Amino acid sequence: MSSQNPVFIPGPTNIPQRLLNAMHIQTRDHRSPDFVSTLEPVLQGCKQVFGTTSGEVITFPASGTGGWEAAITNTLSPGDKVLVARYGMFSQRWIDLCQRHGLEVEIIECAWGEGAPASRFQEHLAKDKAQQIKAVLVTHNETATGVKSDIAAVRKAMDQVQHPALLLVDCVSSLASMPFAMDRWGVDIAVSGSQKGFMLTTGMAILGVSQKALQAMSTATMPRTFFDFRDMLSANANGGYPYTPPLQLIYGLKESLEMLFAEGLEQVYSRHHRLAQGVREAAQAWGLSLCAQSAENYSDTVTAIYVPEGFDSNQLTEHAFHRYGVSFGIGLGQMHGKAFRIGHLGLLTETMMLSGLATIEMAMADLDYPITLGKGVAAAQEYYRQSVI
Fold first, then answer.
1. Concatenated DSSP letters of 266-335
2. CA-closest candidate to residue 148, choices 299, 287, 372
3. Contacting residues for 272 by C-beta, under 8 A, at least 6 apart
4. Which of 2, 30, 297, 303 could bond 325 through an S-S bridge, CB–CB 3.0 to 4.6 Å?
5. Geometric angle at alpha carbon 205, from 202 and 206, rounded to 5°
6. How far is CA 369 from the centre of its chain?
7. Class of the 17-261 domain?
8. How far out from the chain centre does Cα 201 lie?
9. Mutual orientation of helices 34-50 and 247-263 as an angle, nearest 10°?
10. Contacts of 127 (CB under 8 A, 6+ apart)
11. DSSP three-state, residue 210
12. From residue 290, how far is each of 57, 112, 298, 299 by CA, in Å?
């Protein structure tokens, strides 16, 4: 029965039947002339979602982690210095990836629950008189804590001190669900994936790459083969791939873009905000605190919620799964055992969201949490009643 229930994790997300149908195709010849007419609109459509007209979209058969690796190997050299703020599990994983590739990582330590500290980035860059820092790495939406960062503020901080470093942004759990403006924010590489806002299966890394980042390829000496931008761009220019492409995902992405544009990106963003705010209203009614420390940093794709002192969040999510057949996000890193996460992105509606809130509320009542059954759901219902378009 659990397979009939939606998941409430921050990705992979629920997959619309329309997209399952689009991916359910027989093998086709990816070197045939008609593949060109499939691939090119997909790349152009993704540019619109990234918010770029001057950049290029490059895809790889990989998850978002592969996209991270592609971003640094195509633009940096071993020993280069990069500047990163650590404020969650996914910023930490990007740090780890950079260190494994022989980069010198300058880390700004932040409390989990905070966003990217633009002013502290500016301080570090201002001290870098020799301009040894080659890239600033930022996680737009920290999935572990439910925190959104202000990318425009980071770019402004870089520009204030006239630092030429590249700005690389992880937008895996935000793109196609929350506003993203690659050109306007001055992002050089934006890394996303197929399994979140695009509502597909895992397996495609999707990157927006600026002209400045493409120019950096000429001096970057990091080894790359599978993730070489040059090979992919050259093949894409002729309507192909340098190796076997994830054909089913490409057809799925084509259909996903059609769905997003039919709804309208602004409506997509508005829907995600409404879903998220309903969850936040429920958490407040339960008397529980969010990991995100300020309203301006609230994520519209995932909410991380602290459980009361003396309770184990992992026990809560396990109970919800075993008793009611519904999945919620576990606490990651410093949040392990202390917080659970409710994903509210992709294929979800207010009605579906209410079912998730009712389920986690039942699970909390089963485990004797200090909540009143129905109170959180009622708070979300009232918000959704007033905000439905």
1. HHHHHHHHHHHHHHHHHHHHHTPPBSS-SGGGB-SSEEEEEPPTT--HHHHHHHHHHHH---BBPP-GGG
2. 299
3. 177, 178, 300, 301, 344, 345
4. 2
5. 125
6. 31
7. alpha beta
8. 14
9. 50
10. none
11. coil
12. 35, 11, 9, 11
Pairwise CA distance, residues 241 & 38, whole Å: 12
CA-closest candidate to residue 161, choices 203, 124, 136: 124
**What's the rounded Cα separation, in Å, for the pair 293 and 339?**
14
Q: Give per-residue pLDDT as tens, 303-348.
A: 999 999 999 999 999 999 999 999 999 999 999 999 999 999 999 9
Per-domain residue ranges of the chain: 2-12+265-387, 17-261
350 token code pair: 């207010």
What type of residue is 296?
E
The predicted-structure confidence for 61-106, as pLDDT tens digits, reads as follows 999 999 999 999 999 999 999 999 999 999 999 999 999 999 999 9
Residue 235 burial by Cβ neighbours in a 10 Å radius (0-12, 13-18, 19+): middle
Q: Which amino acid does the sequence have at 222?
A: M
Cα–Cα distance list, 244 to 28, 44, 172, 226 (Å): 11, 21, 23, 11
First to last CA, the chain: 32
Look at residue 155 in the predicted model and tell me its pLDDT: 98
What gap in Å lies between CA 11 and CA 329, rounded to an integer? 9
Find the Cα–Cα–Cα–Cα dihedral 12, 15, 21, 24, rounded to 10°: 20
Per-residue pLDDT tens over the stretch 158-206: 999 999 999 999 999 999 999 999 999 999 999 999 999 999 999 999 9
Q: What is the DSSP letter of 75?
A: T
Query: What is the residue whose two structure tokens read 């009143």?
Result: 372
Whether residue 60 has pLDDT greater than 90:
yes
User: How far apart (Å, rounded) are the C-alpha atoms in residues 174 and 169?
Assistant: 11
- 4 contact partners, CB below 8 Å, separation of at least 6: none
pLDDT tens per residue, range 349-371: 999 999 999 999 999 999 999 99
**Main-chain phi, psi angles of 63, to 5 degrees:** -90, -175
Distance CA 54, CA 72 (A): 20
Residue with tokens 């998850």: 63
* Pair of tokens at residue 293: 């420390």
Superfamily of domain covering 2-12+265-387? Aspartate Aminotransferase, domain 1 (3.90.1150.10)
